[in-house]
């Protein structure tokens, strides 16, 4: 498994298969750090990437696609820059499926999104380390 990925966020790190998404939301657990909720599930590794992630902003809360895309860009950037701390705790031979869902009703600035990502990663790391022991 490739642990030394760098700061890119390529196709191999995106979660897009319907079966995996359904499995994630039916069997996964969640961690909340306002304004984000991360739904996650550890599965046997299917490829080189230590994780597969999707980003979601509900249409119910933000009618305009421009705002949804802006929030999604902020979440992707915060994830991309801070993913190394999460990858360090994913066990060998496993892959982390994750969905990052925006749960706020207002557009947040980048700093608050990045703080939420870091805080959620800390909670998620604690849970993953607890499961690995």
TrEMBL record:
Consists of a catalytic RNA component (M1 or rnpB) and a protein subunit. The gene is rnpA. One of its GO terms (cellular component) is ribonuclease P complex. InterPro entries: Ribosomal_Su5_D2-typ_SF (IPR020568), Ribsml_uS5_D2-typ_fold_subgr (IPR014721), RNase_P (IPR000100), RNase_P_CS (IPR020539). Belongs to the RnpA family. The keyword Nuclease applies. Coiled coil: none annotated. GO terms for biological process: tRNA 5'-leader removal. This is Ribonuclease P protein component. Signal peptide: none annotated. PANTHER family: RIBONUCLEASE P PROTEIN COMPONENT. RNaseP catalyzes the removal of the 5'-leader sequence from pre-tRNA to produce the mature 5'-terminus. It can also cleave other RNA substrates such as 4.5S RNA. The protein component plays an auxiliary but essential role in vivo by binding to the 5'-leader sequence and broadening the substrate specificity of the ribozyme. NCBIfam families: rnpA. Keywords: Endonuclease, Hydrolase, Nuclease, RNA-binding, tRNA processing.
């Amino acid at each position: 498994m490739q642990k030394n990925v760098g700061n890119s966020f390529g196709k191999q790190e995106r979660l897009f298969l319907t079966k995996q998404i359904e499995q994630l939301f039916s069997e996964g657990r969640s961690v909340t750090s306002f304004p984000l909720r991360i739904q996650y599930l550890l599965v046997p590794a299917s490829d080189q990437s230590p994780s597969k992630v999707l980003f979601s902003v509900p249409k119910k809360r933000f009618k305009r696609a421009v705002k949804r895309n802006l929030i999604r860009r902020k979440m992707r950037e915060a994830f991309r820059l801070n993913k190394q701390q999460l990858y360090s705790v994913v066990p060998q031979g496993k892959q982390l499926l994750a969905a990052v869902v925006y749960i706020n009703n207002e557009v947040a600035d980048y700093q608050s999104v990045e703080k939420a990502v870091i805080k959620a990663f800390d909670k998620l790391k604690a849970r993953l380390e607890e499961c690995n022991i």
